[in-house]
Amino acid sequence: MAQGSLLEYSMNEMKNANGEVFANLSEQKCYNFYHFSSAFKKPLTEPDSLENCIEEFLGENILNHPLTATLKLSGDERQLLEANLTLEEFEKSLALTLTQLLGLTD
Question: Rounded to an integer, what distance in angstroms lies between the CA atom of residue 72 and that of residue 78?
Answer without folding.
Answer: 9
